[in-house]
Amino acid sequence: MTTTTDARTATQDATAKRNDVVLAAFRVVASFLFGLHGLQGLGFLGGVDGRGGAVPFGSWPGWYGSVLELVGAALVLVGVAARPAAFLLSGVMAYAYFTVHQPQALLPMHNGGELAAVYSWVFLLLAVLGPGAFTLRRALRR
Question: In the chain, where are the structural domains located?
Fold first, then answer.
């Protein structure tokens, strides 16, 4: 009986560690890619028009959204305040979807809002599950 329990516990521990590492990789990739969108809004990486154009400074919601995307993505990327930052970013993308994309058409494939919808759910998932392994917060705690 104990051997079965020990084997089950070892398997569960290995699975939990693997899941923690995969979640961390997911967090890093998603937040890095999302941060690139924030940089585009601020005129980097070709900007919003492909020619280096930025969202006008201080304009609502574009400029503020770009700043939130960049700062929030950086926090999630390094794993500092990752849950609240991810929750905020989920809301930012839900807001973007429902105010910018959804009025154009009902379905995301018709209104260009696929990325906003997917990122909203990605960051909600990270807010609920946490950042996984390899965070700056964990490193500083040691």
Answer: 2-141
